[in-house]
């Protein structure tokens, strides 16, 4: 028998809300967090639309002295983890810190730190590099700072599989708890890559939207025939996963059960998924097998749904391969039209969407979808979401390098 794993806490900082309540309100009402880029002067850039974290008071979670040692992606991760701990009533004395770990996904690390200090290197030479540059920029500092903040001494790591990073981190955390090595894991993902180098670099590979700079709120258009690229977002989403008996003993709130994980690699193209969606379909099927479920047990798929010309039709193919004719009975939505694409943080926030859908019996819609592309013919719930029976949700993520990851949450039952 596998040890059962449940979700007992959640926290997020993202373009559509700086906590779970605000985020859910945006999802329920169809409020996008996407807008014109204000992080830097982007007049010379082809893509000038982003999903930025707004009105966020970092000092609610980290004191000013510690903030000077953290890149933005780390601050978002720590804030989200603190929220999750509070949500779970995860209080000192209710757990063994040696048996609680942290595993977060991150694709890029502290880009703003690298860029700022490279400029200083060019201007002033090596002495211009700030002393904390390396500790701030490297991706493991997100989980490390979460562990320091919460006093956790279990395994602590970063998973970096591009846009699949957070979903892989959640899946690997599930395996750690099941194995008996730990009782709890803070897991999810984080990213803060709205910088000149990042936007410029993604633009050079024609991954970002450029058509909607004057109408940014509709720039991310998953599955729509008029989509032209993704919108860079930032933020974090962290869940507290806990072994069931440990959670019951603590009298923790239980929001859902995490029951399945599957991961594959296309081993093909560096930036494009397998054209037939074989790897993505396999990851979904593996997650179903791990969960002991059949396609008919799933009610809703939170799709990767990036709004790129390449991803959306291939992901649709993958869903059809994994689910057969039942794919047409599923609700399949992309919430990136609300949050933008947080790269390594995306799967963490979308896992939270999956849990909230189960909690609230509501499927958030694909907000900006008006005219589905030919071949994109599933029920993408265009516009604002709908009330629906949601007993089980699959969330999938596809990343550069051919990484595919899928996780399944279901309604908790004794």
From TrEMBL:
What are its GO cellular component terms?
Answer: cytosol
Q: What is its pathway?
A: Lipid metabolism; fatty acid biosynthesis
The GO biological-process annotations, alphabetized, read as: fatty acid biosynthetic process
| InterPro entries recorded | 3-oxoacyl-ACP_synth-2, Beta-ketoacyl_synthase, Ketoacyl_synth_AS, Ketoacyl_synth_C, Ketoacyl_synth_N, PKS_Beta-ketoAc_synthase_dom, Thiolase-like
The Ketosynthase family 3 (KS3) domain is annotated at 2-411
Q: What's in the keyword line of the UniProt record?
A: Acyltransferase, Fatty acid biosynthesis, Fatty acid metabolism, Lipid biosynthesis, Lipid metabolism, Transferase
Tell me the enzyme class. transferase
What Gene3D superfamilies does the database record attribute to this sequence?
3.40.47.10
PANTHER family (alphabetical):
3-OXOACYL-[ACYL-CARRIER-PROTEIN] SYNTHASE, MITOCHONDRIAL (PTHR11712:SF336), POLYKETIDE SYNTHASE-RELATED (PTHR11712)
Q: What is this protein called?
A: 3-oxoacyl-[acyl-carrier-protein] synthase 2
Q: Please spell out the taxonomic lineage of the organism that makes this protein.
A: Bacteria, Pseudomonadati, Spirochaetota, Spirochaetia, Spirochaetales
